[in-house]
Specification:
This protein has seven helices and eight strands, in the order αααββαβαββαβαββ. With 234 residues, it is of the alpha+beta class. The strands form two sheets. Strands 3-4-5-8-7-6 form a six-stranded antiparallel sheet. A hairpin with a 3-residue loop joins β1 and β2. α1 crosses α3 and α2 crosses α3.
C-alpha cells in the first residue's frame, strides 16, 4: 500500500512521488500507471492537480500520455532538457516572492568519485566545491551543491559570497551541452533540518552536468524544499 504524502498535497509533491515510483520501479518501464481519477482519490486532491503533475513529467519525457490509451512509463525514457537556462533568483521573484541567498561553504577540493565519473575528469583533479541555500520570503527554497572546473574562464574573480554559482555561470560561462537527471528522495536528518520539514518528506532533486565543447564546466545537485521545483538550471 502506498505511503501517504508528507505535508500539503500539491502538484509538486505528487510529481515528486511519481518520480520516486518511477525510480524505484513501483511503476515499471512499459507499464500503465493508475488513471488520474484513481491517483486523485489516493492523494485526496483534485484531478486537475494530478493532471498538471503528470503533464509536466510527460513534457520531460518521463511518461507517455496517449488519448484514450492512458499514461505509461516509457521503456526508454528520453529526458527533454532545454538550454533556456533559468536563474533560481528570477524563478523565485517570478513567483512574487522575495529572494535571498546564503553561501554555506566554498573550498577547492579533490573531486569526488561520482562527480569524477560524471565529468570524465582524472581522479586526482581538484575542483571548486560550493554549497549554498536559496531562500524565498526568508524560507529555504533550494539547496545548491556544486562542483566547478577551475579551468572555467574568469572563475578566479567570482565572488560567491554575493552571487550564487547558478547566476554567475549563467552570466559568464558559455556552454554547448550537458546532461540532466530528475528524481525524488526522502529528507534525511540534514535536509530535514535545513528545510524545516519532517524526516521522510518528499524532495525533488535535479542533477545536472554542463559542458562547453570538450570542457566540463560544472556538476550540480539542486534539492528543492517540499512544494518547490525548477525545471532546469545550469
Amino acid at each position: 500500500m502506498a505511503k501517504p504524502l508528507s505535508g500539503p498535497v500539491t502538484w509538486q509533491t505528487i510529481q515528486a512521488e511519481a518520480l520516486r515510483r518511477i525510480r524505484d520501479r513501483e511503476w515499471k518501464p512499459g507499464a500503465q500507471i493508475p488513471h488520474e481519477a484513481q491517483l486523485a482519490a489516493e492523494f485526496g486532491c483534485a484531478r486537475a492537480t494530478v493532471n498538471r503533475a503528470l503533464r509536466e513529467l510527460a513534457e520531460l519525457g518521463l511518461l507517455e500520455r496517449r488519448r484514450k490509451a492512458g499514461t505509461r512509463v516509457p521503456l526508454n525514457p528520453v529526458r527533454r532538457a532545454t538550454f533556456q537556462i533559468p536563474i533560481i533568483r528570477q524563478d523565485i521573484e517570478g513567483r512574487g516572492l522575495s529572494y535571498s541567498y546564503q553561501r554555506l561553504s566554498q573550498a577547492v577540493e579533490p573531486i569526488s568519485q561520482p562527480v569524477q565519473a560524471l565529468l570524465d575528469l582524472p581522479p586526482e583533479r581538484e575542483l571548486l566545491h560550493v554549497t549554498a541555500l536559496h531562500q524565498a520570503d526568508g524560507a529555504p527554497f533550494c539547496h545548491e551543491d556544486r562542483w566547478i572546473n577551475l579551468a572555467v574562464p574568469g572563475l578566479e574573480n567570482a565572488d560567491f559570497s554575493k552571487m550564487s554559482p547558478n547566476e554567475w555561470l549563467v552570466q559568464n560561462a558559455s556552454f554547448s551541452g550537458g546532461g540532466i537527471e530528475f528524481f525524488a528522495t526522502e529528507a534525511d536528518g540534514g535536509m530535514s533540518d535545513l528545510f524545516d520539514c519532517p524526516q521522510g518528506a518528499a524532495l525533488f532533486v535535479m542533477d545536472r552536468t554542463t559542458w562547453a565543447g570538450p570542457l566540463a564546466i560544472t556538476a550540480v545537485r539542486l534539492t528543492y524544499a517540499p512544494g518547490h521545483r525548477l525545471t532546469t538550471a545550469i
